[in-house]
Design brief:
The chain is mainly alpha-helical. The protein is built from 20 helices and three strands.
């Protein structure tokens, strides 16, 4: 009886083996005819038997399955095709026999190039959602190219698909991705313009040909600060403020002198309404990067919003000292100065007609004139740097009118009309 049972069991296994091979043959036959509907049906049937396939049959099946699913074209099928190809390469690597790996690699390479081309087209068409999905698939095909994961995350952020973006950013953070790479440049001898090359070998060959000169290698900037910032800001957008701050704390503990991270944490606190903490972090950033005009400008904005005129002027003036062409700093400095006008005008409007009131009116009028005169140089500089700055021009026009400077008023009125006319024509 025992021998009979063994015989029956063997027959069952043999039957299953033939069934597996029959399904694989059916799949192969359908692919040869480019009949992807039948091929996909054969995949479904073969999947049910894969647990009993020997490694040799399984490797071949993974290859055929990938071809069938890629041929069907749906997103889910392509995902499963990539998984099958990865299983194939892992299996053959373990077996030490690379019978199908080369073909699998070529399939992945072809599919990868197709996805990258389509993803770039999506970016050009501003279809960031589609681009994010394609870059995600590109990363599945080539996990060593972590930049694809970064592009997927960045594209997802552009359409506020925060769940997908966060998933990818967290992967990048956990793998310590920086995005730093070496870029290769040389100057075109004929045009004198520095140009980028895809790799060092191509650049060096161009230099040897004498058509390019002055080769230089430049490292790209790290994207770590951007990734951590976006993780934190996504948490803030999702109402997960504590997670946002924890993300910043982790990053800063590893990079205490990274100004980018300090600014990122400051921005999180600003979004959360923690203005004092924002100010402290911004001041810390200015100590670490004392020549950064934008940092002082942002501190000026914060002080102005808090009605701290003295500090606002100090920070704006520092920004201008560091960058004499900082248009917004000139604009905002004039705005801060002119804020003092409101209280003066209010008091003037409340005065009566007595001799004392008339004297006070004259005093206040002179004070207002001094405010105007103090603001004029900053507004003129702002208009000089940006000749279409209609707000600066209109403010100057009104100031000259109030000061009784008729010719300057007419000049500025003509300028305002010219700017508005030009803007209307566009």
């Amino acid at each position: 009886m025992k021998k009979l049972f063994t015989l029956i069991l063997s027959l069952v296994f043999a039957t299953m083996s033939f069934a597996q091979k029959d399904e694989v043959k059916a799949l192969e036959k359908a692919l040869k005819k480019s009949n992807f509907a039948d091929a996909k049906s054969a995949v479904t049937a073969a999947d049910a038997l894969i647990g009993n396939m020997d490694d040799k049959t399984k490797a071949k099946y993974y290859l055929l399955k990938a071809k069938a699913l890629i041929g069907s074209g749906s997103d889910a099928d392509v995902d499963n095709a990539i998984i099958a190809l990865n299983k194939l390469t892992d299996l053959e690597s373990k077996l030490g026999k690379l019978k199908y790996t080369a073909e699998a690699t070529e399939i992945k390479k072809t599919a990868l190039n197709a996805f990258l081309t389509k993803a770039n087209n999506d970016i050009n068409n501003k279809d960031y959602k589609a681009a994010a999905l394609k870059f995600s698939k590109a990363y599945m095909m080539s996990p060593k190219d972590t930049a694809y994961l970064y592009y997927a995350a960045s594209s997802a952020v552009n359409v506020q698909d925060y769940d997908l973006a966060l998933e990818n950013y967290l992967k990048l953070k956990n793998m310590n991705y920086s995005g730093v790479k070496m870029n290769y440049y040389a100057t075109n001898v004929e045009t004198g313009v520095e140009e980028a090359f895809s790799d060092k070998t191509t650049r060096d060959f161009a230099v040897k040909s004498k058509t390019y000169a002055k080769p230089i290698d430049k490292k790209s900037e790290s994207k770590k600060a951007e990734i951590v910032k976006n993780i934190a800001l996504i948490y803030v957008a999702q109402g997960k403020d504590e997670k946002a701050l924890a993300a910043m704390a982790d990053a800063r503990s590893e990079n205490p002198d990274d100004v980018g991270l300090i600014l990122s944490e400051a921005n999180v606190h600003l979004k959360m309404g923690n203005r004092d903490k924002f100010k402290n972090l911004m001041e810390e950033a200015t100590r670490k990067d004392p020549n950064n005009a934008e940092l002082f400008y942002n501190l000026g904005v914060l002080a102005a919003e808090g009605n701290n005129v003295t500090d606002a002027m100090k920070y704006y003036e520092k920004a201008i000292a560091l960058n004499p062409n900082y248009v917004d700093a000139y604009n905002n400095l004039a705005v801060v100065i002119l804020q003092g006008e409101a209280a003066i005008v209010e008091e003037m409007n409340g005065l009566g007609t007595s001799s004392a009131d008339n004297r006070r009116y004259d005093e206040l009028k002179e004070e207002r004139s001094q405010i105007y005169k103090k603001a004029i140089p900053y507004l003129e500089k702002a208009l000089e740097l940006n000749t279409t700055n209609v707000d600066a021009a209109r403010t100057l026009m009104n100031i000259y009118s109030a000061l009784g400077e008729t010719e300057m008023f007419k000049t500025m009125k003509s300028k305002v009309e010219a700017i508005e006319s030009s803007a209307g024509g566009n």
